[in-house]
Amino acid sequence: MSRDTRMARTLHVLIHLDRHVKRATSDEIAKMLGTNPVVVRRMMAGLRDRGIVASEKGHGGGWELTRALDAVTLLDVYRAIGEPALFNIGPNAERPDCLVEQAVDARMAEALGEAEAMLRARFESIAVSDLARDFEDRFARLAGGEGGAGPCSD
């Protein structure tokens, strides 16, 4: 099963909109992410619906932030992308007849529920601006000659 990268990609876009460009079209964002503008519009629509970004059509239009990154948490972004499943593991069947499978599924559901609650709480405690500062720290270390990978080319 492939990884769902929508959250990471969305966070990437938000930091770019804050740190590098104040407004970007769906085409520009699609080029940056190596995807289709239709995918970008779907992704950004969830952010718009939550009041994180706004869009303007026409010449000079595009997507821009409507809230500061310190007012947006990872949980906000997770909700904006539709709250996808956090884990790729889980029960085998919806209504298993086997008592062993029922016992396994019950304990797995309990453990996964606890882990999901902890992860959501952690997402709520991290502002997108925290990630942006981490980027800036990494970039400063690179510029200071500490080596490592360069900033992305977008």
From TrEMBL:
It comes from the Bacteria. Coiled coil: none annotated. InterPro entries: Tscrpt_reg_Rrf2, WH-like_DNA-bd_sf, WH_DNA-bd_sf. This is Rrf2 family transcriptional regulator. It comes from Pelagerythrobacter marensis.
